[in-house]
C-alpha cells in the first residue's frame, strides 16, 4: 500500500470524529464539511508521518475550525433574526460508552450555549468535555500551554454550567413524549398539545430573512398550543407532511411539501416531562444538506389559501 493510500484509509476512518469536532465548534454542517475537506488536503500534502494520525488530524481540523469560527462570528452578528445551528440529522461519530453525552452535546440548546464562548474556549471545551482528549493533545491542537488550556476549560465550564441543558429523561421517554406531541399536533388537538407544553414554553424560529416566518416567536403554553393546532391542518390539506426525526440528538421533525422537499426542521427541548422549547429552522441556506429545499414562500401562500378556504 502506498503512503497516499494509507493516509486516505487513516483519514476515512477518522472522518466521523473530525466532522463531529468541527460541527460542535462551528455549529454548521456545511462549514464543518469544508473544514474536514481542508484537513484532508493538508494531510495529503504533508511530508511528515505523525506518530498518531488521530492526534494530528484532530489538531488540524480544530485549528481550521477556530479560524473559520472567528470570521463566521462577524457574519452572525449581522444575521437577520435569531441564529440557530444548522440542523444535524445524524452524528457520524459513535462511542457506545458516551452516546448520551455525545447526543446532548450536539443539541441545539448546548450549541447555542457554546456560542457564548470565545472560539478558543469553545474548541478547548469541545475537545476536553465532549471527546475527552488529554491536555497534552489539546495544548498541541490549539497552540497553548497545558496550564493555559486547563484555565480555558475551567472558564468555559463556568460559562456553560449555569444554563447548561439538563436532559435527565431517558431517550425512550423523550421519544414517547415527542410522539404524543406530534400525534396531537397532527390532529389539531389544542388540549392535547397544551398538556405536553411547559407553562413558559417558547416557540422560536430561524429564517435568516430568507424564508417566511411560519412562527414569529410565541411564548406560553396557551398561545403556543393554539398556534400549533391551527398550523398543521391547512399544511396537511396541501399535501404537507410532518416527518418525526431525531434532529441534533433530540426529538424533532422535518416538514416536507407534497413533493418531499424540505420546508423546515423542528427540534424539541424536553425536560421534566414537558416541552420547554420548540426551535424551527427554515433558512434555505441551512437546509440543503437535509434534502432538496422547498419554495417556502409558495408553500406558505398555498397554506394560507387552504386555511381560509371554505370546507
UniProtKB/TrEMBL annotation:
InterPro entries: ECF_Sigma-70_Domain (IPR052704), NTF2-like_dom_sf (IPR032710), RNA_pol_sigma-70_dom (IPR014284), RNA_pol_sigma-70_ECF (IPR014303), RNA_pol_sigma70_r2 (IPR007627), RNA_pol_sigma70_r4_t2 (IPR013249), RNA_pol_sigma_r2 (IPR013325), RNA_pol_sigma_r3/r4-like (IPR013324). The keyword Zinc-finger does not apply. It comes from the Bacteria. Residues 11-73 form the RNA polymerase sigma-70 region domain. Residues 109-160 form the RNA polymerase sigma factor 70 region 4 type domain. Keywords: Sigma factor, Transcription, Transcription regulation. Gene3D superfamilies: 1.10.1740.10, 3.10.450.50, Winged helix-like DNA-binding domain superfamily/Winged helix DNA-binding domain. The keyword Magnesium does not apply. Interacts transiently with the RNA polymerase catalytic core formed by RpoA, RpoB, RpoC and RpoZ (2 alpha, 1 beta, 1 beta' and 1 omega subunit) to form the RNA polymerase holoenzyme that can initiate transcription. Belongs to the sigma-70 factor family. ECF subfamily. This is RNA polymerase sigma-70 factor.
